Predict the 3D structure of the following.
Amino acid sequence: MPNSSTDRNSVTVNFTSRRQLIKSAAVAAALTSVEGRAQTADQSCPVEGFEPWGRKPIELSGMHFTPYTSGACWSIDRHLKDRTRFRFELRPGDTTPEDAKKRNISERAEFNQSGTLPTDREITLEFNMLVEEGPRTTAEWTILTQFHQSPDPGDEPASPPLAQYVRPNDLFTIQSRSYHLRPLILRPPRTVHYSLPNFPRGEWHHFKYLVRFSPFSDGRLKCQINGLNVVDYSGGVSYLNTRGPYFKFGIYRQPARERLSVQFSGVRLSTS
């Protein structure tokens, strides 16, 4: 059943000197290792039934997407028969070269939409998702799909206005954020619209979202999982930006010690 709540304690954390030193060391390690990951030999590349996709762009629903990965051979694979089916895998240290240069040690393997989505129309998103069997998640946050903000000058970095998260021990959540003023200088609190402990792995799940992005009361969010209505929300779902958000799917997470593999198929994105 849906479980809605709002986290009003979301604040910017001022790191202590010790934590800053730890992060600096991790960044340095990422900078020295990330360049060689694309050449890493591994007997499990590629997975049976798939082919390595590399960094080639794709087109889905008439929209173009660009891979964003560490360059490792396991990052993104495409199914040999179902050409709408992609497999994403993260292993410890899978930081992209672009992130490493910005001192961001997060790990990712995902597709980023080129361009942005409208804010004056309803957006429909459908896809199938399978989280493969494996160790439970230990990362504080893992994002499997998200609508990312398109920041304006003066905006501070912010969490996505709408995303699917996996928290430690496979707690699955759907959450949004909104802010109705410019520029974005605060980290807005999150609204958790749905949560499911022990997200079922090893099986396909069908998701359907209907979204109207707006930071005001005319915002709208509906979601079905496997045909069941789990979210029906009216209110702010977005930041006040000149351009609408853009869509991303795959895996993006805080660094973790375990491997994580997720498959997507039939991703369809449309506006009305």
Observations:
- Residues 103 and 237 are 29 Å apart (CA to CA).
- Residues 17-33 form the longest helix (17 residues).
- The first strand starts at residue 5 and ends at 7.
- Residues 14-271 form a domain with the Jelly Rolls fold (CATH 2.60.120.200).
